Amino acid sequence: MNPADDPPRPLSTPHAPGAGEPPDLTLDELLQHQGPASSPMLLLVLALLCVLPVAGVGTLLSGAIALLALGWARGAPPPALPRRLGGFRLGPVWSRRVLRALQAVHALRQRWFRARLSLLAHPATALFWAAWIALMALIIFLPLPLGNVLPGLSLVLLALGWMARDGLALLLSAASGGGAIAMLLWLGDLAWATLANLGQGLRV
């Protein structure tokens, strides 16, 4: 079944931070907190973790996002996280922060996201968005300064837009990802110019 064929799923209300013992969640447990798994829901959680400044998480999750893109293109169900990745613990501090962020995203979706420009979320566009997810995963993987923020935000908007059939959110996803691509090209040009100047200095 194509991801677009799944009806929009409501985000479940996460565990309330501060209630009882502080949570120390694994990635698998975090996904279980969000209710029934779907490809957009898995993408949302993984992308949100990439946006948050948790050292090394973007590099760790980029491969899982790329695998999700393959399934998205084929209309396959979301893959289970590898055992080692699914068992990765966020720790109490980041568990609370991620749960709060998911609560904020839930409130944002209810208020601002709705079906519009729905042709952009048609099943026929799934292959394009799968390629887009893979491209954002590649940028997240690269060790760029703050390189996770724009591609991660692009994927968050993509997941929310897909679930709500909100084409405007998908356009914003493309704009955010376009900014990530522009930043990558600028950094590449800067690195090339630096190497060229260094080579000229060595020849003198």
TrEMBL record:
InterPro entries according to UniProt: ExoD (IPR010331)
Membrane-spanning intervals of the chain: 41-73, 119-140, 146-163, 170-188
Keywords of the record: Membrane, Transmembrane, Transmembrane helix
Region (Disordered): 1-26
Highest taxon, organism lineage: Bacteria
Pfam families: ExoD
Protein name, per record: Exopolysaccharide biosynthesis protein
